[in-house]
Amino acid sequence: MFTYCVRRRVLQIRLHSGKHKTKWMLQLSRTFCTQGSESDLTTTLLQLCVDRAFIAPGEFNSWALRNGKSCSYGPLGEELKKNILEQWWNSVTRSKTQVFGINSLHNVLNDKGGLKLVDVSAIGQFISNEGLSKTQILDRLQQLVHHSSSVRTNLLQGALVQYLPSLELVNRKLPFGLAETGTCYQHSDQSIGGVGRTSELTEASLVWFCSPRTSSQWLDHWTRQRLKWWQKFALSPSDFSSSDVEEGELLDGASRGVQVTYRFPWGSEALETLWNQGDSELLKTHGNAKTKLQCKDGRKLVVPHVIAVKGNVDWGLLAYLFNALQLEKKVLSKQRIHQRKVLKLHPNLAPVKVALDMGRGATIELRQVCEGLLTELLEADISVWPGYLETLPQSLEQLQYDEMGVLFSVMISESTLENGLLLVRNRDTTIRETMHISEVKKYLLKYISANV
C-alpha cells in the first residue's frame, strides 16, 4: 500500500502539466491504495480467525470462509455460528404464530440431475474390468449415476414436499410457513485439475405460503423484517442494505426478488435472498394437482403463492466478523505502537461471554473460587473461558480475549478471598469495575438480556 501511495505522488508530479491525465492518475492511484487496505483488512481478519480458533488452519478453510462456504470451524467459530442460527430461528418462528420447523433429508432417491452421491469403488471396478468395452463401461456408469441419490442443493424443495402434510395443522388456512436450517451442497468455482469440486454451505430457509392477492405485500413484510434482523446485531448497521434483484437475474417462475446484502471490503454479497415464486414450483412438485393443494382464502379456495427466504449463514458469519472487527492503535512507548484488534461482537452472538482469571496469591484457594464461579455461570447458560488455567501474562491474556470477542474478563485476587470483591473489565470500554462476587451472575444476565 505504501508503494502505491508513493507512486501516486511521483506520477502526479510528472503529469502536472496535463490536467486531465493528472485527474485520471489520481483516481487510479486512489483505487490502488484502497485495494491495498481492503486486502490488508481481509488478511488480518482471516489470520485472526485462525489464531483464535474461529476456523481450523489451512488454505482451503480460509478460502471457504472468504467465499461464503462452510469450512472446518474451530470451537469459537462453531459457537458463533450456533448463536447466529439460534437467533435466526427465534426471529422467524416467533415472529408469526403459524411458522413450523421441519427437517428434510440431505439426499433424495431417484432424483434427476443435481449433485449425486456415487460409489467410487464401483467406478473403479468398471474401469479395471478388462472384459468390458468402452461402450459397456459408459453404459454401466450411466446406470450407476442414474440410480444414485442426489444431495440437496437448497432447502426449498423439502418445504414444498412437506406442504401437504402441514395443511392439516393449519386447517387449510393461509398464511403459514415452514422453516429449516441445514447443510446444502453446490458446485464450487474452485477446481482441481480442471474438474469442479463440490462445496458445502449452511442455509437458513423460510418458505411462506400465502394468498396470491397478498403475496407482494408479504414479500415486502419479510424484506423489512429480515433487514431489521441483520442490522439488529451489527456494530455498523448501515453496512447492511436491501435491493431488488434485476429482472434478467430472476429465477424461473419468480415475479420478483430482493437481496439483503452486506458491504464487504471487496464489494457487496447477498446474505439472504427473498423470492416471490408464485405457485409454479409448488404445482411442479406435486404434479399440477391443484385440487389437493388448495387452501382457504376467506371464502375462496386458492393454490397459495410461495415466498421463499434463502439465507447463507456462512456469509452472515463472515459479515458479522468484519462488522465487529475494530483496529485500534495503542502507544506503548515512544518507539512502540501496538495495534489492538477487538471483535466487538453483539452480546447475543459473542462465543464467550466472560473469561475468569486469577491474580497472584493462595493458588489453591483462588482456583477453588474460580471453579465455583465458573460452575455458577455455566448453570445460568453463560459461556465461560477458564483463563485461570493458563499461564500467560495478564496483558497478553487481555489481548487474546479482545481478539476472541469476550465481553467481560473477571480478575479474582486475594481481595476476593478477604472481602468478596473482584475486578470486572468491559471489552468495549476497557473500564475495570469493582464488584462483589455475588453480583457477577446477575450483572452479566442483565447486560446480555438488555441487548436482546
Could you explain how this protein is built, in words?
The chain is α+β, with helices and mostly antiparallel strands and 452 residues long. Helices cover 42% and strands 26% of the residues. It has 16 helices and 19 strands. The strands form 5 sheets. A 7-stranded mixed β-sheet has the order 1-5-6-12-9-8-7. A 5-stranded mixed β-sheet has the order 16-15-17-18-19, with helices on both faces. Helix 5 runs antiparallel to helix 6. The longest helix is centred in the N-terminal third of the chain and has 33 residues.
Helical proportion, percent range: 40-55%
Beta-strand percent range? 25-35%
For the biggest β-sheet, the strand order reads 1-5-6-12-9-8-7
Structural class: alpha+beta
Helical stretch tally? 16
At a glance:
With 452 residues, the chain is an alpha+beta fold. The chain contains 16 helices and 19 strands.
Supply database-style keywords.
single chain, 452 residues, alpha+beta, 7-stranded mixed beta sheet, 5-stranded mixed beta sheet, 16 helices
Secondary-structure topology with pairs:
Layout: H1 2-14, H2 19-51, H3 59-66, H4 75-93, E1 99-101, E2 107-108, E3 115-116, H5 120-128, H6 134-147, E4 150-151, H7 156-161, H8 163-167, E5 176-192, E6 195-210, H9 215-232, E7 240-244, E8 256-264, E9 267-276, H10 280-285, H11 290-293, E10 295-297, E11 300-302, E12 305-312, H12 313-324, E13 325-331, E14 337-343, E15 354-358, H13 363-379, E16 384-385, H14 394-404, E17 408-412, H15 414-419, E18 421-426, E19 432-436, H16 440-449
Parallel strand pairs: 1-5, 15-16, 15-17
Antiparallel strand pairs: 2-4, 3-4, 5-6, 6-12, 7-8, 8-9, 9-12, 10-11, 13-14, 17-18, 18-19
Helix pairs in contact: 1-2, 4-12, 5-6
